[in-house]
């Protein structure tokens, strides 16, 4: 690979020293071609036409100290070297028209010459990949005769610098720990989710969607994301939280988007609305699946255009907020049911994180138990702990796959609260643990029964009203117990048959099943 340097002619630095004296002075562009361990095979010298004479002198001197270096001249128009816009435009033009041959040549962009404005522009153009090389700077060697010089190549991929990389990773680890509330979690999936979320929180202003069952920590995590962003100087505004399940009717519109005085009966004053309050901060829409369709349409516009119209007003207002949404519903199912707008889902479903249930991260129960105990101790002002055998028993139960942890952290929090409250002298005993285990088992037993009762037959794939569900489930059972559609029809339409009001039972049954995406043969196959 050939090494090619692109350098602005240094109008003052490359013009130092007259006659022989010039060899005693440090001249950056010339010194770049004078390095023992760096052969510049071609120098692309960039300058405004009025400095042709200086460029010729510099080119001659380069030939003297480095005969292998071929120097090529490039004119750029330069009206005002201190004007950012015009310097950027000139260098941008140069970069666009220069043909980089990356397969055969390495490029070094020399940033020691030129005004500070030009140096900033060279940096920006290199970072944006218009200039396809690495930055290089030259400098005189201090206290060693000013004609000696050295150079340093600056790679914009900062992760290549060990000390910088370790700073980044320390910051990343601290950020992730903050998102985890300082709890040493071990679950791989959860830790991976948090590690990515830390990066997204810092680098992106786009919507974040947190999903997962109730009590998995969505609300708590949203608050921590806000704190992390605030700490890293990403935002100056507030965290504005709203649970969408509490927004209904006119109140929903005006709570979110504000209203003007007199917009409706009872609107006696202007109201700012939550979206405006969240300007430059975070708007956390918890339970977003509960938001009404009209509000969803307005919200979509507010996210896309960063502006919206308060209720009753004819003027739009703007607000620049980061949206974090939380939901324990499957929003795709909600879209299918016509309860959630597909376009809004597409907009908020960019950085989506599903928080795992406690049952899926049993290895994290122990650190979370300690965390809950610590929290309780802090709040109650007295230190609470387990007796050794009691702790072993509780942890063994808590981490057994037979546990439900149906309401996730809420269950854990309630369980620790109960035991800590009953702990005599601040010690949780084995008796307390045994009672607690019985209590949890009893609670979960009720939940499992309820779940079973409400479980929809898995053969029914489409959303279905309870009214239809009851009927379809019974029909499925009868079909599965019958040898043929005709036999099932005889059972199902017995009265109509006797009254002779129905003549083709199989057809009637087939039509009914079809309405719910089912067929008799399919039902029989899946027993
Ligand atoms: N990582 C965690 N470790 C320990 N406790 C947690 C953690 N995350 C949340 N909690 C606690 O668990 C409880 C429920 O958490 P949170 O309200 O964030 O859940 P959620 O997923 O938003 O639930 P819902 O869907 O019902 O709104 C809160 O008391 C919270 O402080
Ligand atoms: Mg919540």
Indicate the topology.
Layout: E1 2-8, H1 28-32, E2 42-47, H2 52-65, E3 70-75, H3 84-97, E4 105-110, H4 116-127, E5 134-140, E6 149-154, H5 162-179, H6 188-203, E7 208-211, H7 218-231, E8 239-243, H8 249-257, H9 274-277, E9 282-286, H10 293-305, E10 307-308, E11 317-318, E12 322-327, H11 331-336, H12 342-348, E13 351-354, H13 365-380, E14 385-386, H14 388-398, H15 409-422, E15 427-428, H16 430-454, H17 466-480, H18 485-492, H19 494-498, H20 505-515, H21 520-525
Parallel strand pairs: 1-2, 1-4, 2-3, 4-5, 7-12, 7-13, 8-9, 9-12, 14-15
Antiparallel strand pairs: 5-6, 10-11
Helix pairs in contact: 3-4, 5-6, 6-7, 13-15, 14-16, 15-16, 18-20
The structure holds adenosine-5'-triphosphate (ATP) and magnesium ion.
Magnesium ion is lined by residues 218-219, 286, 326.
Provide keyphrases for this structure.
single chain; Rossmann fold; 6-stranded mixed β-sheet; 5-stranded parallel β-sheet; elongated; binds adenosine-5'-triphosphate; binds magnesium ion
Please give a structural write-up.
The chain folds into 4 domains: 2-156, Hypothetical protein VC1899 like domain (Restriction endonuclease-like) (Rossmann fold, 3-Layer(aba) Sandwich), CATH 3.40.50.10770; 166-354, Rossmann fold; 358-454, Helicase, Ruva Protein, domain 3, CATH 1.10.8; 466-525, no CATH class. Helix content is 46%, strand content 13%. The protein is built from 21 helices and 15 strands. Helix 13 crosses helix 15, helix 15 runs antiparallel to helix 16 (430-454) and helix 18 crosses helix 20 (505-515). The protein is elongated. It starts with a strand and ends with a helix. The model has no long low-confidence stretch (mean pLDDT 89). The protein binds adenosine-5'-triphosphate and magnesium ion (MG). Adenosine-5'-triphosphate (ATP) binds next to helix 7, helix 13 and helix 15.
């Amino acid at each position: 690979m050939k090494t090619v340097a692109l350098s602005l002619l240094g109008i003052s630095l490359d013009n130092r020293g007259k006659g022989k004296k010039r060899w005693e002075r440090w001249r950056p562009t010339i010194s770049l071609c004078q390095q023992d361990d760096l052969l510049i095979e071609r120098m692309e010298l960039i300058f405004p036409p009025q400095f042709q004479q200086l460029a010729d002198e510099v080119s001659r001197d380069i030939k003297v100290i480095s005969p292998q270096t071929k120097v090529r001249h490039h004119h750029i128009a330069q009206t005002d070297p201190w004007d950012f816009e015009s310097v950027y435009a000139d260098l941008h033009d140069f970069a666009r028209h220069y043909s980089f041959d990356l397969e055969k040549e390495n490029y070094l962009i020399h940033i020691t010459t030129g005004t500070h404005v030009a140096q900033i522009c060279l940096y920006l153009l290199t970072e944006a990949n218009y200039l396809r090389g690495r930055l290089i700077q030259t400098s005189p060697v201090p206290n060693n005769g000013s004609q000696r010089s050295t150079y340093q190549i600056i790679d914009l991929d900062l992760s290549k610098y060990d000390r910088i990389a370790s700073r980044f990773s320390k910051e990343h680890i601290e950020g992730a720990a903050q998102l985890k509330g300082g709890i040493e979690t071990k679950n791989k999936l959860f830790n991976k989710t948090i590690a990515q979320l830390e990066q997204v929180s810092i680098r992106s202003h786009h919507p974040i969607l947190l999903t997962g069952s109730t009590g998995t920590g969505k609300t708590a995590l949203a608050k921590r994301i806000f704190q992390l962003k605030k700490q890293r100087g990403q935002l100056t505004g507030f965290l504005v939280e709203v649970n969408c399940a509490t927004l209904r009717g006119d109140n929903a519109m005006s709570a979110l988007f504000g209203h003007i005085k007199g917009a409706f009966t009872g609107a006696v004053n202007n109201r700012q609305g939550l979206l405006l309050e969240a300007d430059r901060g975070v708007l956390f829409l918890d339970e977003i699946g509960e938001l009404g369709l009209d509000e969803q349409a307005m919200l979509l516009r507010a996210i896309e255009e960063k502006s919206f119209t308060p209720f009753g007003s004819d003027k739009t207002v703007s607000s620049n907020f980061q949206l974090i949404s939380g939901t324990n519903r499957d929003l795709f199912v909600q879209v299918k049911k016509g309860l959630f707008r597909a376009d809004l889902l597409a907009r908020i479903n960019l950085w989506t994180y599903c928080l795992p249930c406690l049952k899926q991260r049993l290895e994290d129960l122990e650190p979370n138990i300690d965390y809950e105990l610590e929290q309780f101790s802090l709040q109650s002002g007295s230190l609470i702990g387990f007796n050794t055998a009691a702790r072993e028993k509780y942890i063994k139960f808590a981490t057994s796959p037979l546990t439900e942890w149906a309401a996730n952290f809420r269950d854990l929090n309630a369980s620790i609260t109960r035991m800590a409250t009953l702990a005599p002298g601040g010690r949780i005993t084995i008796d307390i643990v045994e009672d607690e285990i019985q209590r949890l088992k009893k609670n979960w037993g009720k939940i499992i029964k309820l779940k079973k009762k409400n479980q929809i037959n898995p053969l029914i794939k489409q959303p279905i009203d309870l009214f239809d569900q009851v009927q379809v489930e019974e029909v499925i059972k009868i079909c599965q117990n019958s040898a043929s559609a005709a036999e099932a029809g005889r059972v199902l339409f017995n009265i109509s048959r006797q009254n002779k009001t129905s003549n083709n039972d199989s057809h009637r049954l087939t039509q009914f099943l079809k309405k719910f995406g089912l067929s008799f043969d399919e039902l029989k196959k899946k027993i």
